[in-house]
Protein: DNA translocase FtsK
Amino acid sequence: MAKGNVLKQKDKKKIKETTAKSKNSRSFSSLYAKVDRRKAKSISGAILLLLSIYLFIAFTSYLFSWKEDQDLIISTTFFNFIFSSPDIEVTNWLGKFGAWTAHLFMFKWFGIASFAFSFLLLITGVRLLLNIRILPLRKTYLVTFIGIIWFSTFLGLMTSRVNYLGGSFGYAIKEWLTSALGLFGAILLILVLLFVAVVALFNPDFKAIFQKYFPKKENSTSADKNNNAFAHSEEEDDLDEEEIDEEDLEEDEEYEVSFKDDNIDQDEQEDDEEDIEENEEENIEIDEEAESDDDFEVITKKEEQESPIVKPQSEIEENEADENEFSVEVPKNEKELTDKDLNKMVEDFGPYDPKLDLASYTPPTIDLLRKFESNQGGVTKEELEQNKDNIVNTLANYKIDIAKIKATIGPTVTLYEIVPAPGVRISKIKNLEDDIALSLAALGIRIIAPIPGKGTIGIEVPNSNPEIVSMRSLIASEKFQSSKAELPIVLGKTITNETFTFDLAKMPHLLVAGATGQGKSVGLNAILVSLLYKKHPSQVKFVLIDPKKVELTLFNKIERHFLAKLPGEEEAIITDTSKVVNTLNSLCIEMDERYDLLKLAQTRNIKEYNDKFVQRKLNPENGHRYMPYIVVLIDEFADLIMTAGKEVEHPIARLAQLARAIGIHLIVATQRPSVNVITGMIKANFPARIAFRVLSKIDSRTILDTSGADQLIGKGDMLISTGNEVIRLQCGFVDTPEVEAICDFIGNQRGYPEAMMLPEYVGEGAEGTTLDVDDELDEKFFDAAQIIVTHQQGSASLLQRKLKLGYNRAGRIVDQLEAHGIIGPFQGSKARDVLIPTDEALNQHLNEKGLR
Ligand SMILES: Nc1ncnc2c1ncn2[C@@H]1O[C@H](COP(=O)(O)OP(=O)(O)OP(=O)(O)O)[C@@H](O)[C@H]1O
Structure:
């Protein structure tokens, strides 16, 4: 029994082994076939390349040696010439065979045009051996063969006897043509044929060529201009001739091909066909009938030809009209791409690369930032000892015993960490903060009691000789360079000399305050410089608002790379309050548009959306576009609030509340962090805050919700609060000349034709109404309700479009619609629910509510 079992197990094992073997041998054979095919390709490619070189040398040599060699070849047969006449000596560099081959091609066949054969062998050889596609093969072959025939004939016409220019072929055709048409007629005919061939093969746009060389002197209207800096066409680039080198043009061409599906020209289509053939060779099936993907519909020229033949509407109507009034409209079926096709798009063109538009862009180099001589700052041993003694004695005066004390030296301050003796209450130390600071007789002492996460008390004492933290050291830090953040920013060094980096996209906004002269502008520059060092112009855009009119002007130079502005504005950097209001409202429109696109793409945030776009799953034809992050920087917010009040506060609060998911981030800076500037509404929406030195404890509380910023020492000494903890940093120092050098470096490179255009915003002033939500109903309220119910879509942007309203007014009407139960509450990226199903129900609802 046991024996039988063993046998069975043995059998099973055998069977397994044999199936494994047969599987292996199958996979080996297919592998072998693959390797074999690759070998065959490489070998034939190499042979063709050698042949190409051989012909080229033979032909070139023939140009010099034909006189000597021709007599020898003509006087005998091929066999005799090559094999039986050892005494014959030819001058061709490739000997008898070379002389004979060249004679055959150049004299007997097509003349000098035969060089083209060598060219064809070259591109085919390279394709097979190296798998490099120099030109689309099929089209090149066609063009080359037509070219050979045409040139041979043309040169035949130019000569009076058979020679190596036109070859015998050219001469024979010439004889025949001239006897039939005369010399002039023959020349005319072949010129006409040339024209026909060029049109048939390349279909050039003669009008465009004409206009290029004889441009009309007309200003293009602003409507003609493409609002999106990314969608600018190659032609626009062409206009920018001075700045574009050939390499860039080539790259742009590549970009155009990979992006605009409907612009795929004949060449690429042929390439596609070739690719498909190759794929077929490799047994990759492309299932035309496979399930379709709704996200992306692309019609290439070929597909349009393939779609079912639909009679023109007029034709159908004519036929049918005789009998009755019945007309049929057959909707044209647009072909949808299958998943496989879509993946193939990515395989063929690669994922969409937003950087390709400015592929040659180089980020600023590190040497543009100043190197500080090895920092002289630091703390001497004596200083440390003295401070320690001071602290111990001062605390002893207040009867606070210390168990342990430890010093950590930072760039500008040293942290003395104290472990109090058992039984000492921390609150006691906290209460004595001011007295201790006074006793230590130093500005900038900050007491942290307790240090979060530790059971110790920290006393920060400024170093007598503070170090400058150079921006260069921060940018060069590994932490920053290896950061994978969406909007990486390196701001300074912590008290333990660690580089402090953060992701602005996660913050998601920043409030910056600091009295004048304490390092706020340097800090803002550090933020901008961090982004300039890490991001490509296609990935981030800045909206710079500078009511002080001086701080940010340097950045004007990078307008065509990194800035965004309102259409029709000359300056990208906004200094005028009324324009600030328009810009902020325009950003709100951009925000709504982005939310709509996100919804359409079924994505939750800009990152997912852009990832999907890069994977070519979102069709630009449907309005999708690669979304750059937008960083809005407002320097001196107090000025704005004072002059424009609610008009700026509202859109800022809205942006701050909602813009996070769609990649608009605000950095709002102010010298005066008082409560009427940083209102509750603003504060609530800016969890991340930075404070440079401020003048009072109250200011510190306004900005950070805690004191401490009033105890800073200035010159870039700062506190950053990210909601749960406050960190003291020494801000990186970047001087104006450095920022200037960086902007020059970027500005001198080729940029987009213009700054990124924000959506147009028509101010409400023109409508002459200022509405309040709580006031009576807006006069467009009923129209708006109707539209919302008809479209069953509760979005302010719909109202803006349909009723041509400004952003704020549409927003207020939406609020009123919600208040009167027509739409549901705000739901982030989703549109609000419409609570009334039909027009009749709406009328009834309005009547019931006594609204009309
Ligand atoms: N991080 C820093 N490291 C060293 N020195 C600094 C730093 N930041 C600022 N400073 C010094 O402080 C000076 C004032 O800085 P900054 O111009 O940034 O002040 P500000 O707060 O922007 O003033 P204002 O609001 O008047 O423009 C600088 O010229 C520089 O000398």
The chain has five domains: 29-208, 251-358, 381-462, 488-757, 764-848. The two ends are 97 Å apart (CA to CA). Residues 468, 514, 516-522, 671, 715-716, 731, 733 surround adenosine-5'-triphosphate (CB under 6 Å).
